[in-house]
DNA sequence: AAAAAAC
């Protein structure tokens, strides 16, 4: 049986007595004091975390058992009380928000929407769609697959979602008019406290889909958790992503969503001085966005504890669980005191979800709902995919031809197909993917020498160089970016009109992520791939993918594809037209199990799966 | 084999 958060809180009510007895001290450092600790009791604090620290665990402010209502009237240093109280007021929204004098965090919080006016001026030049960020016309008839128990129905408007007035205001500030398909389905599931595995193209509003429920959930638990003990902080939400830039991007978005809610979002990643991040953490954190390496560092330094984590989100989850990352993720999720699955809420998001990764991921999930939302515009209508046969030795000159052609078109990156020609981009960017870091440097150098202002991003560059490169590309100063796979996933770079797979990846899923850097948010884009004999293993899956996306498949590629030895499922995308499908469903067929019949045990898994939430070492998954 | 991710 799933343990709800509310249950956890009440179950640990016994701890209240303990904390009451503790001698309480004011923090000796200038540390974050969460709203519920500011001027009142710590005795409301409780949580799923047992008191391993014993003793004086709480370093909040004054003791005393003041009722929440009284506390709100209390001292002026109410940090962030406004937002949370309003949220605690629930769907009525804001009814209890007319409070608090003195300084308030809202007055100090940098307005993350601050520059948008200027940006909007610029954006006016691009397209009208830009304001909402999303071309909603492209969202008609999106295929959706959902499976699992008790799936909450999707919503059609943000108004139907009970997020509260402050979040609604942020939605308006973001200029979101109505929820995207992934948001329509995922947000109700997440708000219902269900674990979720979601397949959706990045750029379709994925970040908001997991951020809003997390922020909303934290706002509704205003007295839920301690926030720090000594120098250790206890985030309630943890969002992991595979690259530093993606973590930054999620952080930037989350700050907008959480503006004036009192929910504090902090980012931590490698390659940047840790001291600044530590200081930021000391000032308090509710949601931590991080890359795995730096997080492990912080955990080992005991500057962060995962004991209080209520919400865990993995972005680009299939990448996070592949060979390179899995041990680190397991360490973080299973060996660092994080509450068990079933106690915390776990949400996995990616555009692709290979079956074997789904199987792995089920270790982290409790009776999850599987959700797959088709690509914007149903499959890849918005991305024109071309594949060209180019010998290794001809690649540079061929790329040069493409770039010259774009330049002569008067607008770098004009799209090719007739029905797209009307689209005029004044600023169009070209993203060139290569296989190796060295290859990236050398191609960038060569392009620059030949009169094409370029820059490059890859793991051998310093973080400073990486961020500079990204800015320079986004601004159009260097409209060509040569990148390794570090830039393949999740990065939201507006106005990328053309993705060139100078070197094709070995995995079709990587190809999907790479071309997903264009054609974002309902806009159109072009993807060109250079194919030769060294890409034979990709011939078949590439041909299949292009076919599914109604792209022209050259005869020579079909030929290679038909000759390709069928190499099992490794390179096959599970489940047809979009993203993937629920591996439980597929595997149930072979095992003659009906996973979807419910069952009187209240367990749709026929007793095969431990959904009690406990992680029992030695107990293997039913699918192993 | 390569890429990413901590110092």
From TrEMBL:
Keywords: ATP-binding, Helicase, Hydrolase, Nucleotide-binding, RNA-binding. One of its GO terms (molecular function) is RNA helicase activity. Residues 1-119 are annotated as: Disordered. Pfam families: DEAD (PF00270), Helicase_C (PF00271). Residues 102-119 have a biased composition (Basic and acidic residues). A motif (Q motif) lies at residues 156-184. Gene3D superfamilies: P-loop containing nucleotide triphosphate hydrolases (3.40.50.300). It catalyses: ATP + H2O = ADP + phosphate + H(+). Residues 187-371 form the Helicase ATP-binding domain. This is RNA helicase.
């Amino acid at each position: 049986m799933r343990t709800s958060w509310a249950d956890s809180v009440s179950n640990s009510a016994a701890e209240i007595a303990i904390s009451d007895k503790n001698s309480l001290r004011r923090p000796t450092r200038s540390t974050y004091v969460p709203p519920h600790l500011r001027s009142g009791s710590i005795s409301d604090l409780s949580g799923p975390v047992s008191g391993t620290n014993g003793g004086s665990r709480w370093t909040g402010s004054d003791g005393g058992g003041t009722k929440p209502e009284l506390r709100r009237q209390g001292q002026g240093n109410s940090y962030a009380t406004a937002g949370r109280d309003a949220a605690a007021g629930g769907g009525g929204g804001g009814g209890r928000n007319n409070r608090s004098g003195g300084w308030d965090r809202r007055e100090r919080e940098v307005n993350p929407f601050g520059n948008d006016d200027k940006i909007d001026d610029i954006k006016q030049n691009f397209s009208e769609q830009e304001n909402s960020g999303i071309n909603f016309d492209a969202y008609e008839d999106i295929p959706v697959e959902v499976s699992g128990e008790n799936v909450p129905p999707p919503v059609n408007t943000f108004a139907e979602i009970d997020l509260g007035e402050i979040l609604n205001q942020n939605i308006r500030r973001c200029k979101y008019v109505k929820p995207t398909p992934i948001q329509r389905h995922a947000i109700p599931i997440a708000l219902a406290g269900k674990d979720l595995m979601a397949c959706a193209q990045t750029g379709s509003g994925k970040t908001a889909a997991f951020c809003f429920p997390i922020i909303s959930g934290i706002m509704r638990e205003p007295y839920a958790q301690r926030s720090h003990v000594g120098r250790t902080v206890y985030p309630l939400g943890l969002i992991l992503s595979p690259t530093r830039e993606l973590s930054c991007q999620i952080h930037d978005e989350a700050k907008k969503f959480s503006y004036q809610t009192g929910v504090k979002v902090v980012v931590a990643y490698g390659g940047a001085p840790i001291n600044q991040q530590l200081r930021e953490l000391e000032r308090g954190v509710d949601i931590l966005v991080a890359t795995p390496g730096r997080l492990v560092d912080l955990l080992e330094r005991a500057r962060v504890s995962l004991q209080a984590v209520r919400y865990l989100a993995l972005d680009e989850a299939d990448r996070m669980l592949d060979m390179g990352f899995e041990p680190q993720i397991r360490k973080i999720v299973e060996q660092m005191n994080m509450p068990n699955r079933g106690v915390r809420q776990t949400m996995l998001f990616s555009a692709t979800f290979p079956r074997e990764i789904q199987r792995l991921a089920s270790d982290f999930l409790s009776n999850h709902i599987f959700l797959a939302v088709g690509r914007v515009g149903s499959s890849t209508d918005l991305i024109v995919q071309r594949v060209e046969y180019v010998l290794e030795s001809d690649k540079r000159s061929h790329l040069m031809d493409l770039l010259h052609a774009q330049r002569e078109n008067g607008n770098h990156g004009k799209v090719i197909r007739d029905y797209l020609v009307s689209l005029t981009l004044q600023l169009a960017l070209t993203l060139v993917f290569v296989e190796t870091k060295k290859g990236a440097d050398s191609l960038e150098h060569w392009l620059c020498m030949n009169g094409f202002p370029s820059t490059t991003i890859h793991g051998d560059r310093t973080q400073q160089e990486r961020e500079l490169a990204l800015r320079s590309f986004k601004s159009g100063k260097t409209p060509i970016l040569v990148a390794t796979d570090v830039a393949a996933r999740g990065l939201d770079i507006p106005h990328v009109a053309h993705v060139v797979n100078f070197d094709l990846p070995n995995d079709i899923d990587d190809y999907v992520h790479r071309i997903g850097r264009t054609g974002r948010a309902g806009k159109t884009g072009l993807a060109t791939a250079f194919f030769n004999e060294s890409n034979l293993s990709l011939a078949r899956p590439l041909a299949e993918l292009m076919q599914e996306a109604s792209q022209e498949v050259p005869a020579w590629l079909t030929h290679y594809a038909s000759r390709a030895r069928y190499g099992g499922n490794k390179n096959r995308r599970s489940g047809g037209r979009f993203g993937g499908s629920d591996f439980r469903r597929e595997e149930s067929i072979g095992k003659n199990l009906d996973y979807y019949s419910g069952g009187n045990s209240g367990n749709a898994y026929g007793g095969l799966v431990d959904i009690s939430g406990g992680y029992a070492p030695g107990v293997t998954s039913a699918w192993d």
